[in-house]
Amino acid sequence: MPPPHDHHGPPPRRGPIIKVQIAPPWPRRHHHPPPPPPVVVVQQPPPPPQTVYYVPAATQPPPPPPGGHYHNPPPY
Q1: Model's pTM, two decimal places?
Q2: pLDDT recorded at residue 21
Q3: Which pLDDT tens digit goes with each residue over 14-54?
């Protein structure tokens, strides 16, 4: 049996015991999800049409005249 004046234990509490509500350690989650970020649709301009260079076919030499040889046109 300890002596009546033992001061080795914790001091007696004075006054009512106050319960302190401690915030939960996990983050508070809202019931509704956050709104999605606004999606900005940028209209891409159509690409410029491909520049088509008209390349004529290789120029065919004129067929040789009948006779098998070239000659000057007849003088007027």
Answers
A1: 0.15
A2: 77
A3: 777 777 777 777 766 656 777 888 888 878 777 777 777 77
Q: How far lies 51's CA from each of 46, 47, 66, 73, in Å?
A: 14, 11, 43, 42
Short-list 51, 52, 53, 73, CA closest to 62? 73
Q: How many whole angstroms separate alpha carbon 71 and alpha carbon 56?
A: 28
In this predicted structure, what is the pLDDT of residue 12? 73
**One-letter amino acid for residue 63 of the chain:** P
Torsion angle of the four alpha carbons 11, 14, 19, 25, in this order, in degrees rounded to the nearest 10: -30
Q: What residue has token string 């002596």?
A: 3
Within 10 Å of residue 67's Cβ, how many Cβ atoms? 7
- Residues 6 or more apart whose Cβ sits within 8 Å of residue 71: 65
> Which alpha helices (DSSP H) does the chain contain, by range?
none
